Amino acid sequence: MPSILTNGIQTHYEQIGSGPALVFVSGLGGTGAYWAPQIEAFAKHFTVVTYDQRGAGSSDHPAEPYSIKMLADDLHALINVLQLHRPVLIGHSTGGAIGQVLSACEPDLLAGMVQYASWAKSDAHFNWCFRMRRALLEGESLEEYVHGSALFLYPPEHIRDHAEALSPRLLASVARFPTRETVLRRIDAITAHDAVAELSLIRTPTLVVCAQDDILTPPYQSRRLAAGIAGAELQVVPQGGHSFSETETETFNRITLDFLARIGLLKTDAPVY
Predict the structure, then answer these.
(1) pLDDT digits over 83-96, tens only?
(2) What pTM was estimated for this model as a whole?
(3) Longest dimension (CA), the chain
(4) What domains are there in the chain, each with its CATH number?
């Protein structure tokens, strides 16, 4: 994965495909690897960019307070350095929050945006979820943290049916895990996020999408986003949890590609699935 200097840090990224640019922006974990189930399908028609955020993966992990605005500035710098012309931002959870700030501050930067399992402002439910995740993170075992976090990401049926493969993947992620302090800085950034006042400034064509059984950012959070962003579309799928791009990959890809066709970035007769 190549590395470039953006907003004062080394940012690791990957770029594949050709055509209109899509930037996939991950959630709390912050790594481009989250989007592995999407890369092949989207790179057939688009230039696909994924990257590791500040404090995640192979990018720099500076020991300083983080904010969603800082992460949005990082992404803005990445878009400029890579000379991406009006990309579409596809943001999961924290990635959606980054998209809210970026599109409100830079109304002409993006051609479109997908707000996937995201939220505009923390509330008691959200903060209670992260109170538990903090407690796990500050415990003795990172293995317990990654398994506990999975309960917020995947629906019960997915864990029941895939635990044998999922658990080794979670354990393997511990070897690449940032320091606890770095993850806590990222958690501080997302729990402080409040873009309610900025939603009315967004003019970017936007799809808001989530799963009905998402317990971390329940559908009421997506309804709030869709109500606040002028002209936003809302789709709620029946199942898949907070990470339904992984658990219901075909559904997520279809919904997103259909949106890209509606905003004129994909020929309607293209074989997309």
Answers:
(1) 999 999 999 999 99
(2) 0.95
(3) 54
(4) 3-262 (3.40.50.1820)
